[in-house]
Amino acid sequence: MEKSLSRRTLLGMAAGVPLSAALAACGSSGPTKGGGAGGKASYWYLSGQPQEGVRTGALEAFNKANPKSKINGTTFQNDAYKTKIKTAIGAGQAPTLIWGWGGGTLRSYVKAGQVEDLSSWFDEHQEVRKRLFPSSFGPATIDGKVYAMPCETVQPIVLYYNKKVFDDVGVKPPQSWGDIMDLVPKFKAKDVAPFALGGQSRWTNMMWLEFLFDRIGGPEVFAAIFDGHKNAWSDPAAIDALTKVQELVKAGGFIKGFSSITADSNADQALLYTGKAAMMLHGSWSYGIQKHDGGDFVQDGNLGFMNFPPVDGGKGDPGNTVGNPGQYLSISSKASAEEKKIAKEYFIKGVLQEAEVKAWIKNGSVPLLLGTEKQLAASDDAEFLKFTYDIASKAKTFGQSWDQALSPTAAETLLDNIVKLFQLSISPKKFASNLNAVIGK
């Protein structure tokens, strides 16, 4: 989940949004009303601009067009929302529409019988499903059944690189894991860190494992973990991935002192755009940070970006990605029949309609809606948005961030052990053993 300042405010924010706007999102104490009072159904969602404005605008447009099916919206600041929604769901007093991130949290709602099974509804409304990126349904699906409506935007993890640094050193972007390892000594010889990394924030390290697990063993490796298979972390592909990341650490692949650098401060971003590091693995939201904080770095065309390269001999499709396939709306199983009907109307007539799509793109985001290529092409950030769109729309698998996909207990154990793995204080086998102990918890 969104744990730190940069994670909390930037993970959900659009690429290209000023940092000042992101910081303002932390100041909202909520709850506040949005979308019109007096609705027959209810909807809680996150405050903080610019996302709040887009969400509220979509809800107000629906209410205006459907006066007999109004939905009452209430906004909450991020951390307050997470506490409030869990309490409300536990008490059987959830809003009709439950905004969330899917994955492990959604699984806990499903196990408690608190959210509606939407599988048959989607079967009857294929036109709704076919509008959206197929990959966005992964975190909405629990044990083969769909429990949430994908909405809003996509945020894949991207391998960024400083084109000027590459030109100065006389090398090209890596096309394989072998290339990555070969580039390490070449950058070090020029006193440039191969990779920036805010390792103190933990989830930044996690992105490396997410890609290596996929590229080496395919999406099935983490799927077995998510599904609770015994000793799934000890899969040979998992051990290989854990070993490779430690080999990169031992080779000096990351900036010296990475374990004390925080992503909250955006110090990892600064290392890239100032040329102190050649590359960085980070989310699509990083584009906006570098554009805002990096002076003319982005505008001058010095920022390169690509999907994570394949691993020689690996089973994973190099078109796969990881990150945040979308945000999600579930329907409370405790809602009345009328409230459920209104919520499903909102899925058809309210989610990602024309005005909302334009608003997300204006903010520099890629809506998880198919067919927006022309609108993205007209944006000032067209090259990056097209890149993001292509990755998200063409990926056979869009793996959800592990700290969101897993239960809170398993996620915390994962993050703690990732720190130890990158500090070389535990072996790959010990890492796997520690994580196997919390599978399914």
Strand content: 5-15%
CATH class of the largest domain reads Alpha Beta
CATH superfamily of the largest domain: Periplasmic binding protein-like II
What's the story with the biggest beta sheet?
6 strands, mixed
Uncertain stretches: 1-37
Helix content: 40-55%
CATH hierarchy: architecture of the largest domain: 3-Layer(aba) Sandwich
**Distance linking N and C termini:** 16 Å
Task: Provide the spatial order of strands within the biggest beta sheet.
Answer: 1-3-2-4-13-7
H/I helix tally: 21
Taking all Cα atoms into account, the compactness measure Rg is 21 Å
- Protein structure class: alpha/beta
Count of distinct strands: 14
* Mean model confidence by pLDDT: 89
| Spatial shape | globular
Number of domains: 2
What fold name stands as the CATH topology of the largest domain? Answer: D-Maltodextrin-Binding Protein, domain 2
Q: How would you characterize the overall build of this protein?
A:
- By secondary structure, this protein is α/β, with parallel strands linked by helices.
- It has two domains: 5-154 and 325-370, Periplasmic binding protein-like II (D-Maltodextrin-Binding Protein, domain 2); 155-322 and 401-436, Periplasmic binding protein-like II (D-Maltodextrin-Binding Protein, domain 2), CATH 3.40.190.
- It has helices at 5-10, 19-24, 51-65, 78-90, 103-111, 119-124, 126-129, 163-169, 177-188, 203-217, 220-226, 236-250, 267-273, 286-293, 337-349, 354-362, 373-377, 382-394, 402-405, 408-422, 428-436; strands at residues 32-34, 41-46, 71-76, 97-100, 141-142, 145-146, 149-151, 155-162, 193-196, 277-283, 303-306, 321-324, 327-331, 398-400.
- Helix 12 crosses helix 21 and helix 20 (408-422) packs antiparallel against helix 21.
- The chain is globular, with a radius of gyration of 21 Å.
- Residues 1-37 have low confidence and may be disordered.
